[in-house]
UniProtKB/TrEMBL annotation:
GO terms for molecular function: lysophosphatidic acid receptor activity. It is a multi-pass membrane protein. The keyword Calcium does not apply. Belongs to the G-protein coupled receptor 1 family. The lineage of its organism: Eukaryota, Metazoa, Chordata, Craniata, Vertebrata. This is G-protein coupled receptors family 1 profile domain-containing protein. It comes from Chiloscyllium punctatum. Gene3D superfamilies: Rhodopsin 7-helix transmembrane proteins (1.20.1070.10).
Amino acid sequence: MAEPNFTCNPNDSFKYTLYSSVYSLVFLIGLVSNCVALYVLRCSLQLRNETITYMTNLAVSDLLFVFTLPFRIFYYVTRDWPFGDLLCKVSGTLFLTNMYGSILFLTCISVDRFLAIVHPFRSRMLRTKRNAIIVCVAVWVTVLTGSVPATFLQTTTKTANQTKTCFENFSSQAWKHFLSKIVIFIEIVGFFIPLLLNIFCFSMVLKTLKQPITLCRSKLNKKKVLRMIVVHFLIFITCFVPYNVTLVMYSLVRTGTVGNCSVVTVVKAMYPITLCFAVSNCCFDPIVYYFTSETFKNSIKRKSKSLRLDSDFEASHSTNFLSSTVRTLKSKMLDSESTV
């Protein structure tokens, strides 16, 4: 017989130090990398295809979440939320939006690569910028439908020492009647279906790459394509699978469905760790851009080459200027010596 929940209260206070450390790192790396990516995607690339559309939306989703991280870092350091219930709701909503928006946009990129490699000719009518925009709008509507209901909760609560918590310490009743339903929706639509699509696309692309005639016809480099899809798939699996599997177990624990103390202890310990893996997707997404889009990669290389050339020009210009100055000074010194 399972133990009652009230007899099992494992200590998971380590999460505050973990969150504040990981979120600080994610904020710094995610802000810089996604700002650079968004600049390249919108300002440097001449090509505006469907892949760039998905990448742009993914970068926007990442940045919206990254901008809320300073508030979360402050909260996890001080263990107090002084910013009000509205900002807590917005922060929680953007977390869910980014989490499942990233999953869906990465899945869109995966499906797009599948169509381009497996069905390069038949998919030309589907793989258009207009259709990509329609898909992106559908993704935003879907993730907002799943995340906005969380804003109806009273997300901040006062503790015994008069501090406020944000998006934690919800009652078992809230989990049973409201939060568990949100978890079911976002897990099915935002995780399990995209996971199956990613596995299908990954396996079909691998199968297609074994056919040399297809590679010759589409002029694809096998090594580059393999690297691209493996990086994409590994980021998806590493960031999102551990957290979403743990979230299901965490929901069962919070609703009282699972009451075994050993299981509760493991789940409550794993939840913060897997959440940090999930949040780190903000840092890894620009890697997907680099390996997925040849135009993105070439643009980065052009920018780097341009900066090196500018640096070399300035260095050579400075060297020439110094050499000229030294020669002038020497000639003046000789002239002055000759007149003595």
